[in-house]
Design a protein that fits this description.
By secondary structure, this protein is of the alpha/beta class. The strands form 5 sheets. The chain has a 7-stranded parallel sheet with strand order 13-14-12-15-16-11-17, sandwiched between helices. About 30% of the residues are buried.
């Protein structure tokens, strides 16, 4: 580590050597004065396509199509990048003559990484409205897929990130980034951060792997991990998400969570993915579903939630990620009907729709379901969102009886309580992958929870009234029965005084919204956690009646409850 503090040039020389000697990338040279530097190096791409056996006519047509999509001036960088990504991932449709079959010219061999030409060039001068010169460009088959800005260890990585962001502006070299998938910035003291086109500085990611290995700079270590040929192509092929105008790459826990889940899916094993709240479970769900559908032609996926707003959210997320053919069921019967047909392959439903309110003998009901399971077509995978709530009651037994051959993947962001853990593990099996709250705080993905204890006094106005009420209601009981009932209802004082206490809690909340800087400036949020839906509704009504709250904040009342759907 005695290289800390050396010049940016020394760091760049070391990184170039790393790509050449350890990652086996071809070194194209220093392209400061080279004319015509491009994100699509035609000569390199042409030479590689010839090696794949494509004809001159196919190659010419494919490269022309790629350039047209990359340089469409009527679209945004995001739209051009998305169009190029689709050509890279699925191939360029080429039709040489009328009447001939359209064929696909594949620009990258995704499943055979080592059969692609990986190369780097340094000091690549980009000529546009304002000339810029990125430190290192990563090419695959002549197509620029990565940009790396290196800084002296005494200069913040943030400078490299901001330089990359400014390069993407129309007045600089936006045109070059239409093919770019990874945007890197690094130095010897802080390590490596990465994003993609349009990623704001605060959302640049840090990789974490083999943290105990301190034998080299983190910059070097994580470039070796991410840019290893197989993983680099895998990340681009399976983990890029275009989500409603924002291009996203996976965080490290999402990547390893999905990789672990893929192994479970291959073996048709059920399990639980426990990733803490706010860490991006929806992205994990989308990327895993897309991978399953693409790699298993017989796969059907049903995504089960326990709240209508979550059901709508799941549908929206999949739509924005490009999965337009998701079917939202109207009932449990509708879901089973759809699964008995060959399409759709992707469905979502509410768990309550599996309930039956007219069941007197639940065990007999389950036995009947088991004897006559639903007929389904395909290889069924069931994703259960918030599985700690959804599957702790009896409905999971109904679902498993109806779909006995399905593979169940549970998702939760909440640590499982002891009473739920046994049931959840029984339903789903082992943990597939975990990412805990403390890890997310350490990675700066979520903010730490700051808790300030408040004590709201609860006292009865009249002890005599409660004694009189109790005697009136228990006059038919003997002394022993009365004593047992007193033990059971020892909290009656709190029950009868709860309205006054709730009024004081509401006043306390509104006071905080008036005086706490982050709340009064409307830059912060607060969460009110209650013990039941009933109590949450009571608080909601009290806050609605208070006219001050409309001027102070907009809020949602969230309840932390153990929901049961035993019907």
């Amino acid at each position: 580590m005695n290289n800390i503090g050396k010049s940016e040039r020394a760091t760049q020389n070391r990184i170039i050597q790393l790509f050449r000697d350890q990652l086996d990338y071809q070194y194209l040279g220093e392209w400061i004065d080279r004319a015509g530097n491009s994100n699509i190096e035609e000569n390199l791409l042409n030479a590689w396509l010839k090696k794949q056996g494509y004809s001159e006519a196919q190659i010419s047509k494919a490269i022309h199509t790629l350039q047209i999509e990359a340089n469409n001036h009527s679209r945004s960088l995001y739209e051009n990048n998305k169009a190029v990504y689709n050509l890279l991932r699925y191939g360029v449709p080429v039709k040489i003559e009328a009447g001939k079959v359209t064929e696909s010219v594949h620009l990258i061999k995704w499943n055979e990484a080592l059969k692609n030409d990986f190369a780097i060039a340094e000091e690549v001068t980009l000529r546009g409205n304002h000339e810029r010169r990125p430190d290192v460009i990563l090419y695959v088959n002549g197509i620029a897929l990565g940009v790396l800005e290196l800084k002296n260890s005494r200069v913040s990585i943030g400078d490299g990130i901001r330089q990359n962001l400014s390069n993407q502006q129309p007045e600089f070299n936006q045109w070059f980034f239409t093919t770019i998938q990874f945007v890197f910035a690094g130095n010897d003291s802080e390590g490596l951060q990465h994003g993609t086109i349009g990623t704001p500085e605060k959302f640049f990611l840090k990789w974490k792997e083999d943290e105990s290995d301190n034998t080299r700079f983190k910059l070097d270590k994580y470039l070796l991990r991410i840019c290893e040929k197989n993983r680099f192509l895998e990340l681009i092929h399976d983990f890029v998400l275009f989500d409603g105008g924002i291009k996203k790459l996976p965080r490290v826990h999402q990547y390893f969570g999905i990789k672990a889940a893929q192994e479970y899916v291959k073996e048709h094993k059920s399990g639980i993915i426990w990733h803490t709240q706010g860490s991006g479970k929806s992205i994990v769900m989308v990327l895993l579903a897309k991978w399953i559908l693409e790699n298993n032609s017989a796969a059907r996926i049903a995504i089960i939630t326990d709240r209508d707003e979550l059901d709508s959210q799941i549908e929206r997320v999949f739509h924005e990620a490009g999965e337009k053919d998701i079917y939202r069921t109207s009932s449990g019967h509708d879901l089973i009907t759809q699964l008995s047909q060959t399409t759709p392959r992707l469905l979502c439903s509410l768990v309550q729709k599996f309930g039956r309110r007219d069941v007197d003998d639940f065990d007999a009901f389950l036995k009947d379901l088991g004897n006559q399971p639903s007929k389904t077509v395909g290889d069924i995978f069931v994703f259960i969102d918030e599985c700690h709530r959804t599957q702790s009651g009896k409905l999971h037994k109904v679902m498993k009886a109806m779909l006995p051959n399905a593979t169940f993947i549970g998702f939760t962001g909440t640590p499982l309580l002891k009473k739920d853990k046994a049931t959840s593990l029984e339903v789903f099996g082992k943990y597939i992958h975990t990412y805990k709250f403390s890890e997310a705080v350490e990675d700066e993905i979520v903010l730490d929870l700051v808790y300030e204890a408040r004590d709201i006094d609860q006292e009865l106005g009249s002890q005599e009234k409660i004694d009189a009420w109790f005697e009136a209601k228990t006059k038919g009981l003997n002394d022993w029965q009365k004593e047992e009932l007193k033990k059971q209802w020892g909290t009656m004082q709190r029950v009868l005084s709860s309205r006054a206490r709730m009024d004081r809690v509401v006043s306390d909340i509104l006071f905080d919204f008036s005086v706490k800087p982050r709340l009064s400036s409307e830059r912060g949020n607060a969460i009110l956690v209650t013990s039941s839906i009933y109590e949450a509704c009571k608080y909601f009504a009290l806050l609605q009646k208070n006219t001050v709250q409309r001027e102070v904040c907009n809020y949602n009342i969230l309840q932390s409850i153990d929901q049961r759907y035993d019907t």
